[in-house]
Each structure stands twice: as structure tokens, then as C-alpha cells.
Amino acid sequence: MLQRFWQSIATLIGRRYVQVIIGVLVVTAVCAVGAPRLKFETSQDTLIGKNTRVAQQSRKYQKEFGGEAMLVLYTGPSAQLATPANQKRFLDIESKLMKTGLFDSVISPRTAIDLANAQIPVGPTIFASAEKEYPDKKAALQARLSSELARLQAAGPESFTNPKYVQFLLHEKDGTVRSALQDNFPDDHHGLMIVRLKGNASIANIGKAADASRKIVEANKIPGFTVLASGSPLLLKDINDYLQGGLATLGALAIAVMFIVLVVVWRRRWRLLSLLCVLIGIAGAFGLMGWIGIPLNLVTISGFPILVGMGVDFAIQMHSRFEEELDEDQHVPGVLQRVMGHLGPALAVALIAAMIGFLALQISKVPMIKQFGVMLDLGVAVLFLCVIFLPLALLTWREHKWPTTPKTRAQMSGMLERFVRTLATVATRWVVPMLLIGSIIVVAGFWAEGRFTIQTDPEKWIPQGGSTVHSLDALRAGTGFSTELDFFVSADDVTKTQNAAWLQRFIETETQKHKGEIIHGSSFGNIETTLTHQLPTQGGIHTLLGVTKDPKNQLTDIPKAFYSADKTKANVVFPIANISLSQRKALLNSIRDDLKSPQLKPPHGVDAEPYGLVVIGIALVDALQSNRDVMTLLALALVAAWLLVFYRNLTKTVLTLVPVLLAVGASSLAVYATGLELSPLTAVSGPLVIAVCTEFAILIMSRYVEERGNGLTPEGAVDLGTVRIGRAFIASGLTLIGGFAVMALSSFPLLRDFGIIVALNAVVALSCALIVLPPLLVAADKHPRITGFQPGGEGFGGRRVRDEDVDDADRRAGRSAAID
């Protein structure tokens, strides 16, 4: 029945090749219409999953307190930022930023110094509230109040035109910047404006906000100050822009490389046919993704060269076999029957093996890797259908229009064929040592698998010499930080004295404990503590909230940045130094442990959860590392199960898997030895190696069994079979390798390392299949009762396709008469 199925496809193509060509193009066009529906998705939901606790907490946090922040650094004498003229300039900048509708809040040096100024009239009230709550601190509070009043009197007129008064507002008695003002005045030479983006914004709006903030601040400069706008939104914007623009350039270069490979290596007529057919199939595959709603993200966007490479491999094998059969007999119906009868089942088994292997990606805890698996399965299925019909239909049309003659027939023997024969026979006498060495490589490869460095810091994904990284470096030089670790605190009333006091103790404890990692801690209660040098009180906080309302009695940006409107949620911000991801994880774990300790456990009813890019990055690493090796093992198990079902022979299954196992181990060792860092892209390389090497191994096995069925000796089957498919193997392998090697030219480390690793893996997979499998087949053939290899025996997946079968099929279809 299976044989009749493939013969019926061959008959359909032979009889209706024009209709087949038109049908494939029409279906592809309908699918391709969905391409504009493709969306680029680089939100955190694709990294850690929208249903994870981290993602849910992040959405709650951003809903209350906004998204990531653009940081605008002003370099110059910071006290000058408080002059009336500059205050007016800041007010204008803030207004223009908020009018864009892209930002949740803007806290500038003007905002901060105005709040400091507003505390002067209510200072005694705040101190009185502290004395009431902490009677044992009365003497210290009175001493502090007296000291501050004396300094205030010595400063002179309470006006921003008075430099001494401004210095009093900014500095403690010892000359250090007051703690509550350090967010906006890191030191005496820098001012900082914090522009908080709208919470849970799309990547498109994040990019717009990053551009808008830079344009507005650069167009409204403060005289005497240099200005720099930077921050994490720029990272997301750079990555998104490159995915939508720069990657298209790399894709075009990859196609150009494949074009060159086919022109140079592939010597058959219409040598670019494979690439043309695959590009048509790719248009249909990505269009279908648009209809279904599979988004493009950091991982799925890389599927383009993978699918092109695998598709070209399928198409070249089909083209190669057609030309090979045509060399033997120019009767096109017979050629089609033999091509489909021999190669169709092999390609179908390879396709299903690849698809089953990609199913292992569904156990990943990273959503974009799951989407990548779906995209690969969908893509290879569409390409397979396209390659099964279109190349043979076009070649049939060619033979009717421009038949192949002795003058146009290419000679398929030469240096490349000799090279393939050498690879296939080099280890024939060394099978046992090869297996021993291979076993060591496999064990060592799986040992190395769990020891890779996974880089999830988005700053390391973009060009390290680019403007964004330079701006972040300059930002850190001026402020000491470029990212933050936030805590989302919830309670029935976060302003209660016991809750506010605990919050301040938490900030002070962690800041002191982690000096060098945490720059400082920020909360609204810290404003009162800066003034009184005591823990905050509910009365003091409400007094300060009263002076931070606008004319409409609404809270202004500073309290909004720290408290929800109903006072049930609070925000704590820890700007952190430029420390490694492992240090960030250790820092976060230490803080979490402290929150469980008796000394710092939150009061009853108070909950504190971390949030920020730091937390997301750590969650991503954990998700990538948690079952990466399991994905590889599961892919191997699924492929093995499928091969066992199809072959119904354990020996054939094992023989096919040996080079696959060796390729997995060797590729892991190669990556480990080169010291390349993994990313969300390269973390999926294991199943890719399995898919590519399994395909190569299945095709070699298929041809060997076929040639043995034709009566050749084991050595003859290897010699003839590998040579005949060798050039096609090399051509398809080089297209895959070349497509990814182009990615190695990318200025983005994210794509560069991925291109290097996958190109390296493709070399390993092709080498293992060609070097390891043929000698194993010859050695195993000494036991035909076990392997089933025997002259004149069954072919791949069933009965051999014989000439009489082809003739019978032609007669049944009436095809011979029609062709004649």
C-alpha cells in the first residue's frame, strides 16, 4: 500500500505536471498572503511565560508603577540645575514628554528639589510625628531639628536664586548628597531625570518611547550641561529593530551564499532549482505562520536559515535522484516512479524524524522555544510537501520542453566524489577503535552539556561597540548603575508606621549588607528618614503626601512612583551596579533569605516580591538550564522510537542513531572547547543537531539498503551509494553551513554566536553521518539475519522498486501512451 501511494504521486506528477506547478504556486500564494500578519514579539512573556509567577508579578507591578525607565544624565555642576531658569526648562521638558502619552511619570531634578523645598514649612510637623511614634528618640530628634534649623538660618533667603540655600537642600551637614535626593542627584557633578515608560507597553511603543525621550531632551538642552539619554528600553529597541531590519539583510546574504554554493558545487542542469523551490515553500510556510498566529521572536526569527537549509537538502536530494535516474533511462514516467519509490519514503521518514525530534522543544519552560518548535514542525512539513511536488513537476516540464541530451548531461565524477568516497571508507578498518573513541566523545559531550555559560543579559546580545552600549557605559560612569532591582510590596496600608518602618529597615539593611552591588535604596518613606534620621511614621508620610499633590489634589509623580492610589501597594527601588548575572542571582537569593529571617521578616499581612529585568533574566536562565539536557535526551528517545516503529529492526535503528549520538556529543564538546556562550537562540542546538544528522543518516541507510537489494556487495553498496548521493550531500550541507556562517558576520553577538554554533553543528552532523555510518553498515552486514541486509532483499520501507513495477504502474495509469 505504501509503495502504491508513492507511485500514485509519481503518476500524478507525470500526467498533470502543469496543473501540479500551478496548484503549488496558488496554494503558496494563498498562504503567503498571511505574511503581513506576522508580528514581532520580544516582550518578557516570550522569555518566561505569561502564566509564571514572575510574569504575573511583573504585570501587576507595571500596572501600578509603570514600565522600564529611560535615564537622562546631565553632567555639570548639579546645583545649577535648581536655578529658576533651569527649573523652567525642566518643567517644559516634562510637559513635552508627558504629552506624548508614552510615559507614566517623569521625575527630574526639578521635581526632587521642589519636594525638598516643600518640606521646609512642614518640617516641624514631621518631627513632631516622629517624636510621638518614637518617644525614646525625642532627644535625637530635637538635636537633629535644631541642627537643621541652624543650617537653614545660616543659608539665608529660601530661594533657588540663593546658592547657599540650594546647597542646604541638597546636602547633609557633612557635605554628602541627602539620601532621598540621590536618585536625581547622584553626586555634585551629575543630575538624573527618570522617565518611566507606560507599564506593560508593546515593544513597538517601547521603541517609540526610547526615541521620543532622546529627541525631546536633546532638543531642549540645559545650558552648561551635557545630556545623555539611555536605559534598558534602548536595548529592547535595538534588538527589535535588528530583528525586523538587520536580519533581513543577513537572510539575503545567506541566500546569496547558498546561490554561490549551488552554482559552484551542483553541476546538474537547472542547478538553482532547489533554492527556487525552497524559497517558494518558505513564503508559504511563513505566510501560514501569519494565518495561524505564530509570532516571530528572538528564536523563531532564526528559523529562516534552518528551514531554507533543510528544504534545500530535501530538494537537492530529489533533484539529484531525478538526474541520476535520467542518466540511466530517459523515459520520464519510469524515472518519476523510481525516484518516488526509492527516495520518497526515505525523505518522509527523515521528515517525520525531524518533526518528532522538534516536539521535544515543547517541554521547554521558555515560551519562545516552544514556539520555535511549532514553527520548525510547521515549516518542514510545508517545505516537504512543496519539495515532493514542485521540483519533480518542474523537471518533468523541463524534459518535455528541453530534453536532456548527451551534450547537456553533466559528468558526476570528480574530486568531490573522490572526497566523499574517502570519507565513507576512511574508518572501514577501524570500526572498533572508532566506536570506543565515539563512546568517549558521547559521554564527554553530555558531561559538557550542563556546563555551558548561558548569557541572558540583553546588553550582551547587542554590538558591544555600538552607541547603545557606549551610552550605558557612560550612564554607569555617572550614576554607578544602569538597571535596577525593584520590590513590589503589598499590605492593607503600606503607610502604617509599622509597615513603613519595616520597609525602611529592609532598605537600610540590604544597602549596607550589599555595598558595591546595591548603589542605594529608594522609597517614599526614605524622604522622611532623610529629614529626621529616624524610621518613617504614618503621620510624617501623610504630611509629605499632602505637599506633593497638584492643584487638582492628585498625587504628583514622586509619590505615584512609590505608592498606589489606595496605599495598598508600595515600590522599593534598588539601583544596582554592573555585576554579572551569577552575582545578581546571588544578590537576589540573599535578599530573599533575609526576608525569611526573624530579623527582617515582613510584618503580618505584608508581602514583598522582587521585580525587574534582573529577576526576569534570572528566571530565564533557570528556565533554560532546567531541562535543556532533558530536551536533547527526549529528542533522541522520540527519534529512536519512530525509527524502531518504521524499521521494525533494532539493529537498523541503532546503526542510524550511532552517528546521531556522536554528533550530539561532538557538537557539545566543540561548543564547550570554543568557550562560546549560549543564548536563548543557541540553547536549542541539541534537537537541531539530532534532526540534521538523523536526516543524513536515514538517507545513507536508505541508499545502502537499496544498493544491497540490487545485488551489490557491502563495499560496493557503500562505494556506489555514497558517491552517487555524495555531491548532493555536500551541496546541501554547504548551503546549510553557509547560511549560518553568514550569521557569524552579524554585529549582534546574539546572532553571531548562534550562526557559529549551528554552522559548527552542521559540519559535525554531516561529518559524523558520512564517516561513521558507512563503515558500521559494512561491519553489521556480516550478520544479515540480524540486520536484514541481503542482496535482492527488501528495500527501504518495503519491497524494492523494480522495473516491472514501474512498467505495471505506467500501464495502469495509461501514462506511457499519453507521453508518447
Give a topology summary.
Layout: H1 2-15, H2 17-32, H3 45-48, H4 53-65, E1 69-75, H5 84-99, E2 103-107, H6 109-133, H7 138-155, H8 163-170, E3 190-197, H9 203-219, E4 226-230, H10 232-265, H11 273-292, H12 303-328, H13 332-359, H14 367-401, H15 415-425, H16 431-449, H17 467-479, E5 483-490, H18 497-513, H19 525-532, H20 538-546, H21 557-562, E6 569-576, H22 581-596, E7 607-611, H23 613-626, H24 628-647, H25 650-674, H26 685-709, H27 714-743, H28 749-780, H29 784-787, H30 803-813, H31 815-819
Antiparallel strand pairs: 1-3, 1-4, 2-3, 5-6, 5-7
Helix pairs in contact: 1-13, 2-11, 2-14, 6-7, 6-20, 7-8, 9-10, 10-27, 11-12, 11-14, 12-13, 12-14, 12-27, 13-14, 13-24, 13-26, 13-30, 15-27, 15-28, 16-25, 22-23, 24-25, 24-26, 25-26, 25-28, 26-27, 26-28, 27-28
Report the principal-axis shape.
elongated
Mean pLDDT: 84
**Helical region count?**
31
Strand content: 5-15%
Please outline the major beta sheet: 4 strands, antiparallel
Q: Give me the count of strands.
A: 7
Question: Rounded to an integer, what's the Rg over CA atoms?
Answer: 34 Å
Overall SS class = mainly alpha
Q: How is the largest sheet built, in terms of strand order? A: 2-3-1-4
- For the termini, the CA-CA separation is 28 Å
**Level of helix content?**
55-70%
The parts where pLDDT drops under 50 for at least 5 residues are 794-820
